[in-house]
Amino acid sequence: MATNLRSTTFNSGPSSTEADDEGVQGTCEDASICKRFAVSIGYWDDPYLQHLVRLSKERKAPEINRGYFARVHGISELIKAFLRKTECHCQILNLGAGMDTTFWILKDQDLLPDKYFEVDFPLIVTRKVHSIRSRPHLSKPILELHSEDTLQGDGHMLDSKRYALIGADLRDLATLEEKLKKCNMNTQLPTLLVTECVLVYMTPEQSANLIKWAANSFETAMFISYEQVNMDDRFGQIMIENLRRRQCDLAGVEPCKSLESQRERFLSNGWETASAVNMMELYSRLPRAEVSRIEALEFLDELELLEQLMCHYCLCWATRGGSELGLTEITC
């Protein structure tokens, strides 16, 4: 589900890098529409997504909806655990945020960090900036926390006291860091970084550099990554082929072989602890009342397909420092 990455060419046609980036940006649209549909039929509550994403007329399959529910629930629980451990005296960097609405939901829950940053392709950010500026349901919660009557920024950036939205390429770490610091990123604060289906679209070297940059930039930090896993088997190969047909290449599929390879990518790049769980395992741990509620929303006749799908996605979280805060105790 959600998204990230970018190039310049002097040829009349798009370069392979540009074409790949366009395919990746398309996954942002796909994930956003899937989430919007799941919300519309009651899987979870999100009053803000409707102001950012259109409702598709096409009905999504029940296994897709349940997969998104597990994803949103798992990431949300880890984020809230980090916020509680730090008593919200921290910052969050959502890298490849797409049309994510976590900032607004956390504000409603009185769980906002000191500052919440979102980063994505400039083209995606431009769309989101326009939506925020033109829709009071999105702009008012930001302005309520801001010391001025207007939001700073241009088409590729928006900044305020508690929220920043930045157009940047995650593969260009020097520029990324410069833009974050311009929006008052504080490297001394406990920091949570979140990526959802982002690293897999970068080469293993590029994603390793991003993970290493994060480890080196913050003394106390946690990294949450939602990604594909078990991609070596037949089902995984079909997933890869389907995306390739849509001009979307999984350049970073190598670390997605297993839960162990997902953990190792963090441990070998500066992180002290790393845990990972496939989404079927996470689904089995959900509160039974919630599972009963969502399973009553629509009939699923192919449980095996749900299991196959969820066994090919995972949630991984890594920590560095923060033992006095209890970050290593966080689990889902």
Automatic annotation (TrEMBL):
Q: Which organism was this protein described from?
A: Myotis myotis (Greater mouse-eared bat)
Cross-referenced SUPFAM superfamilies, in alphabetical order?
Answer: S-adenosyl-L-methionine-dependent methyltransferases
The identity of this protein, by name, is: Leucine carboxyl methyltransferase 1
- Keywords linked to the UniProt accession: Methyltransferase, S-adenosyl-L-methionine, Transferase
Q: Name one GO molecular function term.
A: protein C-terminal leucine carboxyl O-methyltransferase activity
Residues in coiled coil: none
Gene Ontology CC annotations of this record? cytosol
Q: Which InterPro entries match?
A: LCMT1, Ppm1/Ppm2/Tcmp, SAM-dependent_MTases_sf
Q: Into which EC class is this enzyme placed?
A: transferase
Q: Which family does it belong to?
A: Belongs to the methyltransferase superfamily. LCMT family.
Chain positions covered by the region annotation Disordered:
1-24
The superkingdom listed in its UniProt entry is: Eukaryota
Which reaction(s) are listed as its catalytic activity?
[phosphatase 2A protein]-C-terminal L-leucine + S-adenosyl-L-methionine = [phosphatase 2A protein]-C-terminal L-leucine methyl ester + S-adenosyl-L-homocysteine
Q: Name one GO biological process term.
A: methylation
Q: Describe the function of this protein.
A: Methylates the carboxyl group of the C-terminal leucine residue of protein phosphatase 2A catalytic subunits to form alpha-leucine ester residues.
Residue spans with biased composition (Polar residues)?
Answer: 1-17
Give the EC number. 2.1.1.233
Against PANTHER family, the record matches this protein to: LEUCINE CARBOXYL METHYLTRANSFERASE, LEUCINE CARBOXYL METHYLTRANSFERASE 1
Residues annotated for S-adenosyl-L-methionine binding in this entry: 71, 96, 169-170, 196
